[in-house]
């Protein structure tokens, strides 16, 4: 079911977001993309995954910038690990979007879960050793939230 613009689209987004873990994040995220007001559940899920892909892509660029600035060997090693993880995360979101279109929901779940694990692994890499605070906490948390949103909407789609 595709929604017309206006109040009907807003109500559909709100109804969908009420079934996710973070209503406020869901609402803010989906309302930031005008396509959401005309989308069905699959469309909303694709939008969430596209936002995850954009987050991962911009984070990868930011990591490259940080690698050129940081001199501390431990931080550099962590950033190199994160760079590899985020390269994989980009592939995971691309595959997730493709699998969503093909209705391979179990595969979408695997891909988005992997992306979330990558962000978590990146974050904990800094705190597990002598590196101190992660310079990527905000980006990692945002990616985790976007992944969680995509999985919550996927659950709604895949319900019998």
In words, what does this structure look like?
Helix content is 77%, strand content 0%. The protein is built from six helices and no strands. The chain has helices at 7-17, 23-31, 41-69, 73-101, 105-127, 137-158. The protein is elongated. The protein starts with 6 loop residues before the first helix and ends with a helix. The mean pLDDT is 92.
> How many beta strands in the DSSP annotation?
0
Report strand %: under 5%
Mean pLDDT: 92
Shape, please? elongated
Tell me the major beta sheet: none
Tell me roughly what share of residues is in helical segments: over 70%
Helices and strands in order, then pairings?
Layout: H1 7-17, H2 23-31, H3 41-69, H4 73-101, H5 105-127, H6 137-158
Helix pairs in contact: 1-2, 3-4, 3-6, 4-5, 5-6
Give the structure's gist in a few sentences:
By secondary structure, the chain is mainly α. The protein has six helices and no strands. The chain is 77% helix and 0% strand.
Keywords:
160 residues, mainly alpha, 6 helices, elongated
